[in-house]
Write a structure and sequence with these properties.
- The protein has 78 residues and is an alpha+beta fold.
- It contains 2 helices and 2 strands.
- It has a two-stranded parallel sheet with strand order 1-2.
- The longest helix has 12 residues, at 31-42.
C-alpha cells in the first residue's frame, strides 16, 4: 500500500477528487477537518471515504465525541 503525506502548507478545496482521504487531528485542530467531513457527507453522489484519527488524553477529552459518533453511525463514508 502507498501512503502520501502533505503538510499544512498546501491549500485543499472541495471537491478533493480522491476515493479516500485520511485526516489526523488533536484538540480543536479537528474543526477544519469537520468542515471537510460535512461537505463530503452532505453532497449527494460524493462517495469519498474518510479515515479520521483523533488524539486526546482520554475518551472523555474528545471534543464533540457524541456528535462525531453520530456522524459515523449516519454514513458509511466516515
Amino acid at each position: 500500500a502507498r501512503v502520501d503525506f502533505k503538510g499544512p502548507f498546501l491549500k485543499y478545496q472541495y471537491p478533493f477528487k480522491k476515493r479516500r482521504i485520511g485526516c489526523i487531528a488533536g484538540g480543536t485542530g479537528f474543526t477544519p477537518i469537520l468542515q471537510c467531513v460535512h461537505e463530503i457527507i452532505e453532497t449527494p453522489g460524493d462517495t469519498t471515504r474518510i479515515d479520521f484519527i483523533f488524539a486526546s488524553a482520554s475518551p472523555q477529552d474528545i471534543l464533540m465525541k457524541d456528535y462525531l459518533d453520530g456522524l459515523a453511525a449516519k454514513t458509511f463514508k466516515f
